[in-house]
Design a protein that fits this description.
The chain is α/β, with parallel strands linked by helices. It has a domain of 107 residues: Rossmann fold. The chain contains five helices and six strands; from the N terminus they run H-H-E-H-E-H-E-E-H-E-E. It has a six-stranded parallel beta sheet with strand order 3-2-1-4-5-6. It comes from Cyclopterus lumpus. It holds the Pfam family Methyltransf_11. This is Si:ch211-93g23.2.
Length: 169
C-alpha cells in the first residue's frame, strides 16, 4: 500500500507552493516518445500527482491526462489550478490504477515513487501500459531500488517491451 503522507489541507497548500515542476523531465520524455512512436500520445497518467504541477505540463502532448493520488486534499488543491480541459484527477493508490490493461501510453511519477509499494506499483504500471509504452520516474535521490522479482533496475527497460526512464535531481 502507498505511504499516506501529505494529505492534510495545510500540507497540500504548502506542497503546491514548493513542489518541483518537472519541465525538463516532460521535455525529455516527450522527445523520446515522439522519436519512438510519434502517434502514441493518447493517455498519460501522473501517479502520485499531488497538487498537479506535473500533470498539467502533459496537456499539450496528450489527448487525455489523468493525475492520480491517494490524498483527497492534494487532489482538491490540484483542482484549484488552471487545468486544461483534457486534464482530470482520480483518487486511487498507485498500486491499483483505474485503467484497463494496455490502455496507457505514459505512466509518470514525479517525486512520488519512493512512497509506493515498489513491486506492486511496477507490476501495475506494466499492466496498464500499452506495448511500447513509457514509464518515467523522477526522484530526488538515486536511493530508490527499482526492481521486483528477478528483474533488476538494469533490466527494467525490458519489462514487457515497455521503456522506463529514471531521473534523479
Amino acid at each position: 500500500m502507498s505511504v499516506r503522507l501529505f494529505e492534510g489541507r495545510d500540507h497540500a497548500a504548502a506542497y503546491l507552493q514548493y513542489r518541483v515542476t518537472p519541465d525538463e523531465l516532460i521535455s525529455t520524455v516527450m522527445s523520446y516518445m515522439k522519436n519512438k512512436e510519434p502517434n502514441q500520445c493518447n493517455l498519460a497518467v501522473d501517479v502520485g500527482c499531488g497538487s498537479g504541477q506535473g500533470t498539467v505540463l502533459l496537456a499539450p502532448y496528450f489527448t487525455k491526462i489523468v493525475g492520480t493520488d491517494v490524498s483527497p486534499a492534494q487532489l482538491e488543491m490540484a483542482l484549484t489550478n488552471e487545468n486544461p480541459p483534457n486534464v482530470s484527477y482520480r483518487e486511487c493508490p498507485a498500486e491499483k490504477l483505474p485503467f484497463a490493461s494496455g490502455e496507457v501510453d505514459l505512466v509518470m511519477a514525479v517525486t512520488a515513487a519512493h512512497w509506493f509499494d515498489r513491486e506492486k506499483f511496477l507490476l501495475e504500471a506494466d499492466r496498464v501500459l500499452r506495448p511500447g509504452g513509457c514509464l518515467a520516474l523522477l526522484s530526488y535521490s538515486m536511493n530508490i531500488e527499482l526492481e521486483y522479482g528477478d528483474v533488476s533496475n538494469t533490466t527494467l527497460n525490458d519489462i514487457s517491451g515497455n521503456d522506463a526512464f529514471y531521473f534523479s535531481e
